Amino acid sequence: MQTEEEGKRIPTLESCLRLIAKIYSIAAEPETGILGIRFLNSTLAKDKVSEAAANKLVENHHYGALTRIGSALKKKILPTFVYNKEMEKPLLIMVISDGEVHKHPTTFT
User: Fold this and answer.
1) Mean per-residue pLDDT, 33-58
2) What pLDDT score was predicted for residue 108?
3) Angle at 1 between CA 33 and CA 25, to 5 degrees
4) Cβ atoms of residues 57 and 37 within 8 Å
5) β-sheet bridge partners, residue 47
């Protein structure tokens, strides 16, 4: 994301994340915050994140590298929030990307 269009997409992404955090702080249970935030190209993992903490995460995040979205979801999101859990509420997963598609070398066209 940092290399695409000289990073011009990053402010849009950060604005989107801040808005989601704001909406969630109004709509969700204030004491629990956002259930979890994961950056798919990072080991950073935060649970029960307040709006202020979400904004701080966005400000301090380094953007770069390609993301294998499906692999990252399978490795980081599903085991933590879905597998072996009795879910009381549906899980909403938002994946925010710069939209740049890169084909894996073994992908057939």
Assistant:
1) 81
2) 44
3) 15
4) yes
5) 36
